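User: I'm writing a short methods note and want a consistent example. For Acyl-CoA dehydrogenase-like protein, I'll paste the sequence; you return only the structure tokens, no commentary, since I'll be parsing the reply automatically.
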Amino acid sequence: MDDIFIDAFERLLAGVCDAATVRRIEAGEQAGALWDAIASAGFADVLVPESEDGAGLSLLGAAPLIAACGRHALPLPLAYTMLVRAVLPASARADVQGPVTIAPQCSATALRCDNVPFGAVSDWVLVQRDAHCELWSADSATRAPDGIHASLDATLIWHEAPRSLRLDLTPESARVAGAAITALLMTGALEKILDMTIAWANERTQFGRPIGKFQAIQQQISVLAELVFSARMAANLACPASGFAPPLQGAAAAKGYVSQVASQAAGIAHAVHGAIGITTEHDLNLYTRRLHAWRRAFGAESQWHEQIGAAWLAGDASALDFMRGALYPASA
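Assistant:
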């Protein structure tokens, strides 16, 4: 991806999405102004083809932008919106304004979607219905918070059929794409907690010197760095260099591994920060809370590890050949 995209996006988020803004939106303030600032700059359409007035990036090209959303704790589903707007027919994009999220699951018998990421701040929801997907307006939906402090996830309930648009996307494709994008969001949050942990270890003094000088702290930070960088590598397995449809096994490996390391990484960050890291006033919780929420979104690690294991057992290739063929098809 050309650096011009990520540099401009980082500057934009640094100016409009500071920790105070994130906290106000989590507390219930409307996010319209923040969304308008981002959408007016064109970042919601980076996956849309250039022939349709988008940037024409692949998912691999957009990966740094999606990770930046996690790194800045962006309280909006911009990453999911990028995907949905790319799938939308060109004629329908003008009618679908505002942030769009993807519902991991929807009741087959009721107009209800449980535990929707960013459900509290989304104007539209991509819903998986039988053999197809639909885009539902959230205008008339009742939003029930998930009960977790400052969470933007919510259960959405419609009491009558909402405005909807059928999409040329299968539920399986939506689930896989949601998992891949969530893994990328998590890598951004992981990078942020690593930076915060290193900075705190150099700033906090104990026994007359920074705690980062102590071998035990250095060892923990080394493990954290290893987890963060390996998570970034794993997330890229889900990103095709052309188009925006993640490969199934690549997305499974990405979401499975990143979810697996998220809990350990958050634990190390909090251990190094000590008691101050769990206070509401400290910014660390903005990222570790998201890591735990995203870990369960679109399937936790056990679900995706089972997916990979079942695919391997269904064939007769060795584990190495399966990995090469499924995760690195170009080298198989």
